[in-house]
Amino acid sequence: MEKLILLLLKLCILVCVVHAVFEDQVGKFDWRQQYVGKVRFSHFDTQIQSSKKVLVATESNVFAALNTRTGELLWRHVDKTGPEGNIDAYLHYAQDTVLVVGNGRMLRSWDVNIGGLNWEILLDSGSFQSACLVGQQGIVKHVAVLKKTVISVHYLSNGHQKWIENLPESETVDYQTVYSDGNGQVFVLGIVPHSHITIVVYSMEDGEIIKQVSVEAPWLSNIPGSCVVVGQGMLMCVDSTTLSLNILDLHQQLQMTQIPLQSLGLEVDPGFHPSLVSHQPNPAQKPLSEFFLQLGPERILLLQLNNGQIVKLNDFKPLKVLLASFATTGEKTVAAVMSPKNATAYSINLFSADTGRRLLDTTLIFPVDPNGGKPERLHVQAFLKKDDSVGYRVMVQTEDHALTFIQQPGRVMWTREEALSDVVTMEMVDLPLTGTQAELEGEFGKKAAIQDGLLSMVLKRLSSQLIMLQAWIAHLWKLFYDARKPRSQVKNEVSIENLSRDEFNLQKMMVMVTSSGKLFGIDSKTGGILWKHYLDNVPSNAAFKLMVQRTTAHFPHPPQCTLLIKDKDTGLATLHVFNPIFGRRSQVTPPALPQPILQSLMLPLIDQDYAKVLLLVDDQYKVSAFPSTKNVLQQLQETASSIFFFIVDSSQGRLSGYRLRTDLSTEQVWEVAIPTEVQKIVFVKGKRPNEHVHSQGRVMGDRSVLYKYLNPNLLAVVTESTDLHQERSFIGILLIDGVTGRIIHKAVQRKARGPVHVVHSENWVVYEYWSTKSRRNEFSVIELYEGMELYNSTVFSSLDRPHAPQVLQQSYIFPSFISTMEATLTEKGITSRHLLIGLPSGGILSLPKMFLDPRRPEIVSEQTREENLIPYAPELIIRTEWFINYNQTVSRVRGIYTAPSGLESTCLVVAYGLDIYQTRVYPSKQFDVLKDDYDYMLISSVLFALFFATMISKRLAEVKLLNRAWR
Amino acid sequence: MASPGGQGGGGALSTRGGGGARRMKWSLELSAGNTRSRGDRQGGQGDVVYPIGYSEKPVPDTSIQETDRNLVEKRCWDVALGPLKQIPMNLFIMYMSGNTISIFPIMMVCMMAWRPIQALMSMSATFKLLESSSQQWLQGLVYLIGNLLGAALAIYKCQSMGLLPTHSSDWLAFIEPPQRMEILGGGMVL
């Protein structure tokens, strides 16, 4: 009997262990957004009239097709990161797209209709210069790829090589461009800088050199930068020193004719390098004889080359032309010109490319996003209307990597925020309380209680209760109203105005900082972008550090976030202080930072406005505080003796600790030098400041306690050897107390190599590395324990720690590479911990920390069983139900952010990389809340039924008793 | 005894031959004392004939008194030794139920612990029971010891099952996280 019951209990427990989501929960708590990155090449698919595709190849090595109606991804191909997957050239013909990838390593042809790969061939790697499609008699059959020393021609149908030829005199001549205009010849243009242009003409048929000429051009240094081919094979170059156009007939190749810009009545803006843009609508035909000449940041002209003469077709005056672009549909080619209309709008006009005349009814006016960047590129899709006139749509690419698709007469169809493909750092901020909640907060605030008397307090209470009742009734009404509508129509429109914290604080504001300098505020529940703000003066190699100075808990003070932006070249930093809920710049003026900033630290001290104090350390190791009011400075003086900070200089291999003096100067307390010629510091990880540890120890099998060594000042320093030879490479882990500089523990993993991923939390450090000896990925875990007795259970001071902790370590084999790693975080730290591991395959694995426990025994004993320790097995297995993102692949995960929610069981997770994925995880299951699919109807109906049954049976029993009494 | 209509009871149903202002077939005399006194009087007058050998006074029975006392004593000892007698049984149950924490052992331990406690709580009632015995105090002591032993056994069982908070691990949840004395920040040079 007992065994039976035990069995039943066990069954119950086993049934409860379900990590994965159910089918009906898909998309309920999670969302994913897919991005492509900053667009480098784009092409509107005009193969079919009804086609609604735009093909984009991006700087993030992504090739994708977007739906022009909705802006959604139709398909996407993500290549390797870095130069290996870099898309060098984009060629399009009919329904095939040819990409040159990885500095000329690969040639790939894609079918754009379905996004399938037609063929792929491997080329000799490296030194890619240029590529072009080669046509003959109006049909394009070949593609030519030019490298530094060699030119090869491939069939467009299968990628096979037709011929390959070494370029003559390739040691001296720098070949840069290849050009073909459909007459069976391939022109290769090379240059000897400041001397002459070399033109080699190959026959398409067999690759024989037909002609090889040199033309003097001592002023020219870069062909693709300053030359275009126009009209009947005329090479047109612009010389920015003499401010002239130089024309060379590629077929005759006699000499360059120079036409000074002044003779055309044109002037170049001072300091501006003029540039040319030409257009070749069909690779089997000659380019247009019309071209754009840009003379200044707001001056672009449309010119035409006519029998060796340059004719000015249109100078677009009085428009200030920001961007101009050609577009072809059928036989017609148009020039789209974008100019600012007023401070809040841009206008785009269409001009005929042949005549330069403006086309009627083609003006398009669209508003400027005040929180966006300046327009950078214009992608125009022209199409023929039924009445044979030209219509068009434009895709505007702005500096903040956003794509905006606009239709006539200025309707914004969609916007894609491609900056989000490169999130650098993020924070999650609690949403503010609703008006009614805030009312209550205000009512029972300290200040209110002092000011008001008893009566007014009572009145206030009554009024706030009334307001709450009103809100509740409104809520009920809304529920009732929504319930009548079909499910699909009910949409909870989230906007900044109606943002409020939910019951369990599960909905938060995600503040995301992207490398382009654009900040986003995203609702964590739906993924909708609630605000965006573009910082337009962010240097390209900036380092960001985002800090929450004041949370929403201090009503009526607005929440406050501070973003430290540091230019890595100059070291100078700026602070951007903003309200994380609305994205607006705060009223607070950040201090000017004239000195280069090394680091910043957030203190738990708060000023009279409840803002946490931020200390900024400059390169003289002087400290400045923000905010720096009198109150703050006084507090700083009082607590200065207990404020320490550390600076790690990876380039010099120096870790140093400092302490604050009362006059806000600093003194060095300790220094650890790591010889840079042997190893370099890759990471320093402290503990997260908002981490709570509920249990101070672990219960052993004999019911004694092994106390954890919970040093809040502990730093995990990871070093990698500079020698990458597989026999000699190693990685090192140093556990250093950041206050005293004492090395608590040191571990060296020999024959191991990075990249190392580290998580440091509670009393453990988990790190992952590549073992070159066994050629596999390994996890290692270090846990620190104080022993069976606590040294001091009330306070922790690093300065008073006479005993070294016990260190336990164990390693495991992991069957996959990993991209990033983070630990779950909950409100009180009662819930067990899981490690969230981003895999290169796009999965996010939730691995229970229980499996990474150095106390896992090799031999199972009664005590270890009592402790629930899993017997040691070297392999960690990836179970498919551990993937928290089921089939929602997250490409190129770079970081995982975890935040606690109001529920102890629930941890919010955001994985970001090329995509963004948000979900919730329950490491110990949902022990504090009913499941979302809990059957309220069934339970309540059963309850009611039982209640009524009791009532009825009671009545019946009474009647029966009475009857019996009468008998 | 006091049921109405009972012959010689509280209220008597009687027929009267004659006399009195009103004639009735029968009447109910509600005043019990009155009836009784009349009945007594009637008994005294010999209206009701007692059987031969009936004596109204009880005759003291002296012959059985000795054995009765012994019986009471025995009975009292039974009561006093009851808890002690249960101990071997409890030991057997303890042995059988094992040390795993599941519903049956827990129920048994609860029973084992609850019974002596209940007995100790109702000590005074037991003492009243034992009042008639001459060795009242000794018996009380034995009874107490027996119950205490039972309770001790239950506690021992709890102990062996690990239900007593005697280890430091049982107080682990109440340890507050230590207060941090130093504030530390910093990191890699940005």
UniProtKB/TrEMBL annotation, chain B:
Claim: ATP-binding is one of the keywords in the record: no
Alphabetized InterPro entries for the sequence: TMEM85/Emc4
Main location: endoplasmic reticulum
Transmembrane segments: 92-117, 137-156
Superkingdom of the organism of origin: Eukaryota
Pfam short name (any one): EMC4
Region ranges (Disordered): 1-21
Annotated membrane topology: Multi-pass membrane protein
UniProt KW keywords: Endoplasmic reticulum, Membrane, Transmembrane, Transmembrane helix
Subcellular location, record wording: Endoplasmic reticulum membrane
A GO CC term attached to the entry: endoplasmic reticulum membrane
Family classification: Belongs to the EMC4 family.
Subunit composition and interactions: Component of the ER membrane protein complex (EMC).
Name of this chain's protein: ER membrane protein complex subunit 4
